[in-house]
Sequence to fold (238 residues):
Amino acid sequence: MTLRQGRSAMTGCRFSLIAGLALLGGLSALASPQASSPPDWEAILTSMGLVDVQSIQRDIGVDLKYSTADNFLGRDVYGSLEKCFLRNEAARKLAAAQDKLTHLKPGWRLLVFDGARPRRIQALMWEIVRGTPQQRYVANPATGSNHNFGVAVDLTIVDAEGQELDMGTAFDFFGDLAQPRYEEDFLKQGKLTEGQVENRRLLRKIMIDAGFLSISTEWWHFDAFSRDEIRRRFAIIE
Ligand SMILES: [Zn+2]
Fold:
């Protein structure tokens, strides 16, 4: 791996992915004789008591970006995981957020980009970005992301015509413009419009009213509980 660090990011990504897959394959082969077949994540998460959010609130839209190639990794790393699963309490809060949105804006829907993410997938993502500029945007699987506990959700809002609201940046935009802590400055500088900031405020309002916590660095990310409470009450999803 050391010899390859001087190569281009693309080459590094490719080799890291292969190394990551080989490592994961090797680990699972040790753990179980049938581990060569890909995990049925939805069955695993259901058996752990996590909830498919659309099973309790069918108005919520789901487009899991990491289960497509339309993400910053450029590949599907979620495999069989196509739905947004969350811990039951977090799923109930998300359903409440959709109810609040429907009340304020009939016909508008939440559109979820990410929910529960098993640590094994986090490790794969970590291997892909290791040594690249994107490394700082992926949580180290050793400590885990709140997504690994099944209590974090990434999402936006779509209007009654099905159009995503303009939030000023795309989901997973890596730059200050995506960070709520700089919103007022960008508004003054004309880099974000009043409409874009209003859209973000609407998303925050309904999510916070439903019991979520927003973060200062990503407009799309919300946690159902504080970091301390998450680590006290929930196990990481391996
Ligand atoms: Zn997130």
Q: What stands out?
A: The chain has eight helices and seven strands. Residues 9-31 form the longest helix (23 residues).
